[in-house]
Fold this protein.
Amino acid sequence: MKILVCIKQVPASNQVRVDEETGVLIRDGVSAKMNPYDLFALEFALQLKERFSCEVDVLTMGPLQAKSVLNEAVYMGADRGVLLSDRKFAGADVIATSYTLAQGIKATGSYDLILCGKQTTDGDTGQVGPEMAEFLGVEHVSNVFEVLFVNEEKMLVKVNFEHHTYEQEIRYPCLLTIEKEANIPRLPSYKRKKQTTDDVISVLSLEDFTDKDPSHYGLNGSETSVERIFSPEKNDDRIMLSGEPSEQVQALYALLKERHVF
Amino acid sequence: MKYNRLTQENREDILNILQNSKDVLFGDEISNDYKHDEMEGIHGEPECVVRVHTTQEVSAVVRYANEHRIPVLARGSGSGLVGAAVPIHGGIIIDLKDMNRILELDEDNLTVTIQPGVLLMELAQFATEHGYMYPPDPGEKSATVGGNISTNAGGMRAVKYGVTRDYVRGLTVVLPTGEILTTGGKIVKNSSGYDLKDLFIGAEGTLGIITEAVMKLVPLPAHSISLLIPYMKINDCMDTVPKLIRSGLAPTAIEFMQSEVIRHSETFLGKNFPDKSGDAYLLLTFDGEDQDYLEKQYEAAAELCLECGALDVFLVDTDERKDSVWSARSAFLEAIKASTDMMDECDVVVPRSEIAPFIAYIAEASEQSALRIPYFGHAGDGNLHIYLCRDGLEETEWIQRRDHAFKLLYDHAKSVGGLVSGEHGIGYVKKPYMRESLGDNVLDLMRGIKKVFDPNSIMNPDKLFDLED
């Protein structure tokens, strides 16, 4: 079985500033890390690797610096990484990103199982995984948090929706997006870091894709454009209750009543 | 020492002093939380609790208590582990939790002035938000800084940054007579006679009540990384520690943990630890301004650990990874507590070179006393937290085995140059062990100091040492 995990490099801190004029995230000088949701997808893959003899590749799109996030996945246990990097990919919205990733996957090889985090901490749409599956023409399930059964042909997974769960059987090839806290992601190993050589990461550009039409990628290939991004206003209004717990409860009750909460 | 019980007249006087009856509690109004600390082994019955808001209020209450020979006791979050904040002679508890304001950040002097009820986590967060670090990092983040000063709490970063004492620049203290004293200040140096400030630090509220503190801050390091290092053999793990210290590397923390304690933590938190390969672990942290320098530091440490028999070295470099490892570490005390019906603790500190043989001795003490004794600790500063678990033993048997184990551990610590407490203090329950460890001459000097400050012995009496030996 061959597994591919799609990962993304995101700002390491959630205190990201936005350029007021351009509405673009200020990424300069902000250190980056692997999207925390992708860690669960990667761990999901690595646990399957421990049970079956399968290969785990990781894929990302971004500038050359994004190699570090692929390396990090290798230190955790992935076998090799693929970076999709081309200036023509820049400025992509959800659909152009999904299309680029799908093209990249086709150029890389065929996979039985493609895994994504359920969303990212910067874009937060949760749409790239499913859209990619549509472009690839494979079945997909979102918000998977447990595997109930798995063999070389299919798997039975448990899916989390906020107020209910359901079980779904799905045959390979397929794409799953993995729910937050579906597992405890392992840590990167210094021993693996030492053993990792440069050739473990390959870089692909538009030239390597089947569809080489630049108008399908990046800003040109995007159906949507962002009008404005801004940080929400912070509201620090608060009332601190003090005293004995019983007094605090009474004060809270009075406060809620005063505000007609009930 | 004979103390007076509160009369109706006393109650009325105290109500008059505070001028707000909501801040004065008597009898049944006093919740059980005031009658014990985190260890719950020692109970006291306060006759009155006053919730104070100003130094002047503290002064007025203490002056009154002194005049009427009523014991007074300062209390913060009540997260102590040795009964220091338990009113064993009754009297008045002065609850400082509401004195929780951060008064001033002085960026020219790199100090922050706070009231004693500010919580450790609040001070740490405040410092971080302003680009500074308050380095002392004891495990109990909901403890008050006043309490931290009173026990000279240490924490995980002591290896590089030192302990609470190293970050106290000045104190405002209400003396047992009610007099208000300011000692130290925003000054960096001080060669002006006895440094009284240092007497109040670690005095566990026996010499005065801290009502304001000027604390030192340092610039916030731009980067930090932790390494989680599993070992199959506990000896290999512990033998790494002196080599790390000798290596010239400067970790901020060198924590040691057993897999048994990690399992307790997993059960307690309902959350798995990110690695299960080792029987013992070291957890190192490095911080610094320069990413490349930091990388060189941690790589050198990683190589050294592998040479010493580590199975691997895991990188804990993002907020999520730090949380997955450090949340388990922070829950150890509560997790061990939840694994048994009752426990007692030994917070012994030994020279760092003695850590490995001391840990080997814990197994011996466990066998000899027939008690389960899990432990963890700050390997980098020689401070171990050792827990004696009752595990359903009948009362007499428990006390006998516990006292036997304590004697073995404290005697052994003394024989290798160690002391009774590294950071939790002496309070009420560790008095005999400190006496045994320090000897009567030292204790007599301490009693003499106590008498100068507190001639009537009204302030947190019978803590640290017996007054009437």
